[in-house]
């Protein structure tokens, strides 16, 4: 069994500008095929437009609200929404709420900086 404890996981800022906590990642925890992270976009903050060539991402929003740019679409997201981001699709998030926008992000294959292309 592989288990992590939230309080023991340090956050870092990733290439797109969000604050990330890797809740489970093969390079850190020893699992094999996917990664799970919590991402936080600060009040009035936004991530940079980017894409992943290989990685499929699933975003599940847990707190707050915002605008998601996905390809040519822009739509509102809020706690309880889930979005699947296909490989190669440009995307970004903007926090439009009054609290930090929080989401869980599952990546297959696991997240890597090398697969993140800034646009």
Mean pLDDT: 96
Order of secondary-structure elements: EEHEEEEEEEEE
Count of DSSP H/I helices: 1
Q: What count of structural domains?
A: 1
- Please provide the count of β strands: 11
Please identify the top-level CATH class.
Mainly Beta
Report on this model:
β6 and β7 (73-78) form a beta hairpin. 3% of the residues lie in helices and 49% in strands. It has one helix and eleven strands. The strands form three sheets. It has a six-stranded antiparallel β-sheet. It has a three-stranded antiparallel β-sheet with strand order 7-6-9, with no helix packed on it. It has one domain (6-111): Jelly Rolls (Sandwich).
Features:
globular, six-stranded antiparallel beta sheet, three-stranded antiparallel beta sheet, 119 residues, Jelly Rolls, mainly beta, single chain, 1 helix
Task: Provide a compact summary of the structure.
The chain has 119 residues and is mainly beta.
How is this fold's topology laid out?
Elements: E1 12-13, E2 19-24, H1 26-29, E3 35-41, E4 50-52, E5 56-63, E6 65-70, E7 73-78, E8 82-85, E9 91-95, E10 101-108, E11 116-118
Antiparallel strand pairs: 1-2, 2-3, 3-10, 4-11, 5-8, 5-10, 6-7, 6-9
């Amino acid at each position: 069994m592989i288990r992590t404890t939230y309080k023991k996981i340090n956050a870092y800022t990733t290439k797109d500008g969000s604050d990330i906590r890797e809740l489970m990642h093969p390079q850190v925890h020893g699992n094999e095929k996917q990664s799970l992270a919590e991402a936080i976009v600060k009040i009035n903050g936004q991530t940079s437009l980017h894409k992943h060539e290989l990685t499929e991402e699933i975003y599940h929003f847990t707190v707050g609200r915002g605008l998601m740019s996905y390809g040519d679409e822009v739509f509102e997201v809020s706690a309880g929404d889930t979005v699947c981001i296909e490989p190669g699709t440009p995307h970004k998030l903007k926090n439009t709420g009054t609290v930090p926008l929080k989401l869980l992000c599952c990546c297959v294959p696991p997240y890597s900086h090398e697969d993140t292309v800034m646009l």
